Structure formats: structure tokens, C-alpha cells
Description:
The structure is a homodimer. The first copy, chain A, is built from twelve helices and eight strands.
Amino acid sequence: MRRIAIINQKGGVGKTTTTVNIGVALARAGHRVLLIDLDPQAHLTLHLGQDPGAGQLGTYELLTGSASFAKARRKAGQNLWLVGSSIDLAGAEVELVSVVGREVILRDLLDQHVGAGRDHHRPQYDYVLIDCPPSLGVLTLNGLCAAGEVFIPLQPHYLALQGLGKLLETISLVNKRINPGLLVSGVVLCMYDAGTKLAGEVVQDVRTFFGEAKDQDLPWRATRIFDTVIRRNIKLAEAPSYGQSIFDYAPDSNGAKDYARLAAEIHAPPAVL
Amino acid sequence: MRRIAIINQKGGVGKTTTTVNIGVALARAGHRVLLIDLDPQAHLTLHLGQDPGAGQLGTYELLTGSASFAKARRKAGQNLWLVGSSIDLAGAEVELVSVVGREVILRDLLDQHVGAGRDHHRPQYDYVLIDCPPSLGVLTLNGLCAAGEVFIPLQPHYLALQGLGKLLETISLVNKRINPGLLVSGVVLCMYDAGTKLAGEVVQDVRTFFGEAKDQDLPWRATRIFDTVIRRNIKLAEAPSYGQSIFDYAPDSNGAKDYARLAAEIHAPPAVL
Ligand SMILES: Nc1ncnc2c1ncn2[C@@H]1O[C@H](COP(=O)(O)OP(=O)(O)OP(=O)(O)O)[C@@H](O)[C@H]1O
Ligand SMILES: Nc1ncnc2c1ncn2[C@@H]1O[C@H](COP(=O)(O)OP(=O)(O)OP(=O)(O)O)[C@@H](O)[C@H]1O
Ligand SMILES: [Mg+2]
Ligand SMILES: [Mg+2]
């Protein structure tokens, strides 16, 4: 079972679009996928056509101890489950400020939930994907502590690497102090303006940056910059307004092709490629 | 003298690109423009080819009382001044948490600075533009309290209006409690994907939303949705990597045309159009 947190504290770089569409792509390929919406904006929840809040239990109730995963998750499609978010989650940062172990609440509940499913011949889920808000606060920390891997979506624009330093520093601290297995396993290039020199140059800088980490004892020494880039495609921006993944909304679009190819690349172990 | 805060707590919607390019457009049209970078990411500062930090005084020193405007500003071009940012500003949120009047520090220093220039026959500046970070914390509050007007850049995507509620609520509170003259004078549609139905639909929703406020006693009862939209144009994303405005980097591009037209629309009073 792979537990992947999708993280970048920079806003609007494709975290939610990536979580939804690789989640649905993997589910359509027959894998059992749990999606967790850790953002009070609840865009992941809305993107799947689900109601944030509205009497539903979700990540807020999980983090504040009033629900288990079994209670908080809902079916979102074939092979697909969701723990949704709500605006209440905005209060979590403040509510949890002096709670002991406030960064590992999600991890412990998830361990209980998947541990509970362990007597079957296969794990409860093949993939757990955690969509994080554009910040490095307690919500994202819960994502980092509950995950085994991090994917970083990047928009290949000038300054894409600027915020990376702070993010990697945070990941380093979590790896050192709380979650020793945590690795940055992938970088996803999103909103890629094909054919522009800017995109090409930034990708080159990103490859160089991660290439230099190869022989160092760092959680990003083996990060894959996925070969599949997600091209800018208006269909990807339209799909959420219909509460659909790209595969339901526009299955023949470049957006669908790119995310399907990315999901396949994610599922294949690096050595196979 | 118009003091305009450029605000949207959503990340990556065009705040900095708009501040730089309308600032430079107005300066090129002969107006005296002061730009203030209130974002610890210092993108405005970098976009103008200036060094964030690096021994320069800037907004951090202003807000923590160790510099005046006269000391902290630097010339950034013809008719153009800048108070730059630095990573130190990230600490301001914490450092100012219990400082009395922490939201009006910028306002008071700006009043002193422009007041000091008042014995000339024309004001120190024609425009003061304040670029705010993607949050509604003490930095953005300083922008809101120092300004007379707010421009809201919006990317016309699904959920563009979602964050607006929280932003307008904050503006309302500032207007009620601290800055009674504060108005939302404009909405700038940025990163507009021309020819797509999504952009058209969202703009329609935005117009409807602000139209409904017309007869109410609200700080956004007279908000102009600028007719000029800023189309998506890769040149606008490339310019900052050269430390240039769009007018120096690609003067014949759509990006330059759109921002020049927007600056003209901003400068013309609504009744004239
Ligand atoms: N490849 C793409 N082409 C066109 N539009 C896209 C693409 N990817 C995402 N978008 C759109 O861009 C906007 C930002 O994307 P998204 O919400 O996935 O980013 P995010 O990193 O999750 O943002 P936030 O920081 O607010 O959580 C959304 O309106 C989305 O629909
Ligand atoms: N019209 C446009 N066409 C293409 N790219 C654009 C356009 N406007 C802005 N960009 C690019 O999109 C990215 C986000 O823009 P910008 O930095 O201005 O947004 P912002 O709201 O200031 O972001 P933040 O919330 O991080 O401060 C930048 O890389 C910028 O160069
Ligand atoms: Mg998101
Ligand atoms: Mg900015």
C-alpha cells in the first residue's frame, strides 16, 4: 500500500487536479484508492462532485477526534473512497495548536483503519493519496507524517524552485524527527506550456537540482521527475465545475491522456521504465 | 494620490504580475509610482530585477520600526520607486503578533512619508501600489489599512469566487473598524484563457456577484470589473526571469498590450469610459 502526500505550499500549482486525476486513473486501472482532502477549501471534495460539510463527517472530525476513518470515508466511485473536507477544517490549525502529537493524528487513525483491514488477503487500499493545502502548517504536517512518499507538483515557471527549499527543509525535519521512512518519490510538472522555452528551462533546472542530491543522505536523493508532464489544457480546469474527473468529463482530451500516462508511470517501479 | 492594495489570498492568480506591470505602465505614462512588496517571497522585488534582502532596507525594516520610507525605498526606474521585501518578512507575522496597532504600521509610516512631501505643488506620488502575499494575515492587513482602494486579481476558473467571500469579509471588517474609506474599486481578470467557455462563464458569474452589491451599503458596491482582461501569455511568465516588466521584455506582446490598456482604464475615471 502506497501512501502519498501531494504537497507544495505555493498556491495554484496543480496539487488538487493531480490528486483527483491520478486517483481516478489508478482506480479505473483496478487499484483501490483512498483520497483524503486536507484542505479547508475542500477543492478535492468539490472536484469529485461531493458536498463539503453539509452534515458529512470528514477530515475535520478525524483530526478533532470525533470520527474514525470507517465513519468519515464515503464511496466516490468504483474502487474509490474519499474522506472529504469542510470549511471547519480552517479552524483546525488553531484548535490543534496545543494538542500533544498534533501532527500524527491522521497517521495513527490511518494505521488503525488499514490495520483493521489486514486480515484480508490484500490490503484495504493500494493507494492512499492526501491532498494538502498551500501551506506548511499542521494540516500539511499531518499529511507528511501519515505518508510514506511525497509528490511535489510544480508549475514550470520562474521561481518554481524558490519555494522548494522551505518545503524540503520541512520534509527533512519530519523525516528526522517523526517519520524516518518519508521520501520525496516524485515531482509532477503541471500546467506545462508545451513548446515554450520557459517550461523547458525550468524543467532543466529542476532535473539539475534533484540530480545533485543523488549521492547525499537526503529524503530527495531518489526523486523521479516524472517523464510525463501535464500540459495546460482548459478541459482540466472545466472538469471540477461538473464535479467530474477528466476521465468522465473529457476522456479524449490531452488532460486525460497525460494523467492516464502519469498514473501508469507512477504504478510502474522506476527500474521497469 | 491613489493608494491601491492588490489582494487575493488565493495563490498564483496574478497579483504580483499585475502590480509590476500596471505600476510600470503608469510610470511610463508619466505618473509617479511607488511599489511596496509586502510578500516575504519577494516576487515583486525579484520581478523588477532587484535583490531581496542583501543588505537593503525594505518592508521588513519598515514594519519592525528600524527604517523610514525615505530610507527603505529605492529607485526602480523612471518615475518608479520600490520598497522591496526580503525573507525576513516571513517572521513579521510572529514578531508583530502582540504589537499594539500592528495592522496600521505601514499606514502611519506612509502618511508621514507622503505628508513630508506635501509642501511641493504636487504629491510625492500619483500611485502607491501594494503587492500582498496569498494570505489574510498581518502583512495583508497592513496593505488594507494603508490603502484607499483594493484591486482583486481573479483567475477565471471554477471556484474563483469561492475565496472571495472570506476576502470581502476581511475588507468589510477593516472598513468598519480601522479604515472607513476603504473600497474595492476594481477586479482584474488575469490569466484569461481567451475563447474558452469557462472564462466567459466565470466572468459572467463575477459580474452578477458584484452587480448584486450595487444598492447595498458595502465597500464593493461600486466595484469595476475592468473591461480589459489580461490574457494568458507566456511572455508574462518569462519577463520576471529577466528582472523586467513586460514593457522592457516583450513590448509588442499581448501581455504588454493588455497591461497598457488596463493601466489606461485604471487611470481614466469610470464616468469617462
Ligand atoms: N494542466 C492544467 N491546465 C489547465 N488548468 C489547470 C491545469 N491544472 C490545474 N488547472 C486549474 O488551475 C487551477 C489551480 O489548480 P489546482 O487547484 O489543482 O492547484 P492547487 O495547487 O491544488 O491549488 P491550491 O494551492 O489552491 O490548493 C484550478 O482552477 C485548476 O482547475
Ligand atoms: N497572464 C499570464 N499569462 C501567463 N503567465 C502568467 C500570467 N500572469 C501571471 N503569470 C505567471 O503565473 C505565475 C503566478 O503569477 P503571479 O506570481 O503574478 O501570481 P500571484 O497571485 O502574485 O502569486 P502568489 O500568490 O504566489 O503571490 C507566475 O509564474 C507568473 O509569471
Ligand atoms: Mg488544491
Ligand atoms: Mg505574488
